[in-house]
Design a protein that fits this description.
By secondary structure, the chain is α+β, with helices and mostly antiparallel strands. The chain contains 9 helices and 18 strands. It is elongated and about 70 Å long.
Length: about 290
């Protein structure tokens, strides 16, 4: 039943639709069920999105920490205000040579300081950066350390670079394209963007909206345990009783020394909780209860 739905779904978002609008089909399937997702895709972009339904949405934060794989086409010689094909042209200059692009792609592998694009969902004093920019303001976004890896150039022709790469948490492909172009003494924008992986979740697992079948595509909370790579402990009967009564948990309720974050389940594995070790207590949320 809809009020009992609980798990993750790997989805294929097509280009030409915003992430929020795309997920509306799930809200129609499950009225009243809370839904979260592990990272938006820009309107022009396509590829893998992960939706968390019901109690499993509380695990979304752990997915946000994963590296992500992309394949993108970067158009050199023109920059738009949004750094994508939907923006206004603001700069134009000579495109770089293939030799220069190849050299800079190699040089940028590893850690570097990246400033998010002005048109993004990051908030400044509660206001999205894109909203400030569209209102004529100048959002000041802090740079963050981003890791670039697994870069592979597929082609470079007609001033367009077809490249695959892996970005760490918080990284933007649009910012990467901008910084790559500046390092080549040129400008650029992202023409196409295709996300193919989020941590252990692959594009091959994704279904389109019209293909969704709960029996096939919904990943159960117990299965998610193996995806999220968190430690797992067993909960004693006294611990299980405390959880069901909403009471405090103690170290001796668990089958081993508690790490900072972990799953705990009863012996029958009908109860699954996510536990965080705080300074003086344990904080927990029930992810699944099939008893």
């Amino acid at each position: 039943m809809a009020d009992q739905v609980n798990g993750f779904v790997c989805l294929y978002k097509p280009s030409g639709i915003r992430s929020f609008s795309f997920l509306s089909f799930l809200k129609k399937c499950y009225p009243g069920v809370k839904i979260g997702h592990a990272g938006t895709l820009d309107e022009f972009a396509e590829g893998l999105m992960i939706a968390g339904l019901g109690a499993s949405r509380k695990l979304i934060d752990y997915c946000m920490r994963f590296d992500k794989d992309y394949r993108t086409i970067i158009h050199f010689g023109v920059e738009t205000d949004t750094l994508d094909p939907l923006g206004k042209k603001i700069k134009a200059t000579k495109p770089p040579s293939y030799h220069r692009v190849q050299q800079v792609v190699t040089d940028m592998n590893g850690m570097y300081q990246q400033t998010p694009p002005d048109y993004c969902a990051l908030k400044i004093k509660g206001v999205p950066s894109w909203s400030i920019r569209r209102s004529g303001g100048n959002p000041i976004l802090k740079s963050r350390e981003v890791h670039i890896s697994n870069t592979h150039i597929h082609a470079y022709q007609d001033n367009e670079l077809d490249i695959s790469l892996t970005l760490s948490k918080g990284g933007y492909v649009r910012s990467y394209a901008r910084d790559l172009a500046y390092a080549c003494k040129s400008v650029a924008y992202v023409k196409t963007l295709h996300r193919t992986r989020i941590g252990p979740f692959l594009i091959s697992q994704a279904c389109r909206a019209n293909e969704y079948d709960e029996q096939i595509h919904l990943i159960s909370p117990q299965t998610l345990k193996s995806y999220l790579l968190l430690p797992s402990l067993y909960l004693s009967s006294k611990g299980e009783e405390s959880v069901r009564k909403g009471k405090e948990l103690f170290q001796y309720f668990f089958s081993g020394e508690a790490p900072n974050a972990f799953f705990a389940s009863n012996e029958a594995e009908t109860l699954l909780i996510l536990v965080k070790k705080m300074r003086n207590h344990f904080r927990y949320v029930i992810i699944e209860d099939r008893s």
